[in-house]
Each structure stands twice: as structure tokens, then as C-alpha cells.
Specification:
Elements (H helix, E strand, L loop, with lengths): L1 E4 L8 H7 L3 H10 L1 E7 L2 E10 L4 E9 L8 H15 L4 E7 L3 H9 L3 E6 L2 H5 L5 E2 L2 E2 L3 E7 L1
Parallel strand pairs: 4-5
Antiparallel strand pairs: 1-2, 2-3, 3-4, 5-9, 6-9, 7-8
């Protein structure tokens, strides 16, 4: 598997991006402002993340996703580790991310990778998404904000 920055002329892996964030309009907005990285195996895109500059010292890891049939094999962890290293190489001092309160596996993964919970954006998903989101039998209402000093 290789992880590489996707060229702006390449077609974005919208199926994966929308698996992580069901709002096409939000995805299209931040993908234009950020750098999209893809994980490839045998010329198939199997994972994706977007790295977005927040300010001169901080980047945000947005929309990390792995093909459903390959989840649980450590690909997500490799993508997070790649994002951390890429942010360090670009000179950022902090990497932030947000995930849903119902995203239990993702919350565990991010904390295992050294991220700490820094806040909660209450009712973020209620205010910003037309349809209700349920995951792990829990309604996704709040965005849990995490960060890692680099």
C-alpha cells in the first residue's frame, strides 16, 4: 500500500469521502481548500484523508475513510500516522480533528494515535446536516474536537 497526495486533476474518491461525511456540499467545500491524500493498493484507492490548513501553525485532519471491506486492518491508523508526519513536515505545530460523539471506534483510534479531547461542539450534526445520523445505535449530535501537538 502507498499513500500519496492526489493531484488536483484526478477524480476525487467521492464514495469514500461521502462514507465519512454524508454532506456532499461540505465535502466539496473543504476538498477544494485542502490537500487530498489517498491510500492505494494494486491501483485501487482504498483510503482517503484531507489535510486542511487552519492557520500558520495548525492543520486539521478532515474526512479520514477506509473502504468498508478493508476496515479493521490498520489502514486507518496508517492514514492517521501519515497525516501526522505530513503535518510535521509542512511545519505545523498542532494537528486538530473532529468526529461524531457516536464514532466510538474513531475516538479510540485517534486517542491511540496521541490525540487528546479538547472540546465539544454541541449539536453540530443537528445544526449542519439535514438528515439524522446514527452510528453504533447512538444519534450523532455533537462533534468531539481533538488535537495533537506535533
Amino acid at each position: 500500500m502507498i499513500i500519496r497526495k492526489q493531484h488536483v486533476t484526478e477524480e476525487r474518491p467521492m464514495n469514500l469521502l461521502l462514507a465519512a461525511d454524508p454532506s456532499r456540499s461540505l465535502v466539496e467545500r473543504y476538498i477544494e481548500r485542502g490537500d487530498c491524500f489517498v491510500a492505494e493498493k494494486d491501483h485501487d484507492i482504498i483510503g482517503v484523508y484531507v489535510l486542511l490548513q487552519i492557520n500558520i501553525e495548525t492543520a486539521e485532519l478532515i474526512n479520514i475513510a477506509v473502504s468498508e471491506h478493508l476496515q479493521g486492518q490498520g489502514i486507518g491508523k496508517k492514514l492517521v500516522q501519515h497525516a501526522i508526519q505530513t503535518a510535521k513536515t509542512k511545519g505545523y505545530k498542532k494537528l486538530e480533528l473532529g468526529t461524531g460523539n457516536s464514532s466510538l471506534g474513531q475516538l479510540a483510534l485517534y486517542q491511540k494515535c496521541g490525540f487528546r479531547i479538547t472540546g465539544v461542539d454541541k449539536d453540530f450534526f443537528i445544526k449542519n446536516y439535514e438528515e439524522e445520523i446514527f452510528e453504533n445505535g447512538i444519534q450523532c449530535r455533537d462533534m468531539i474536537r481533538l488535537s495533537k501537538d506535533l
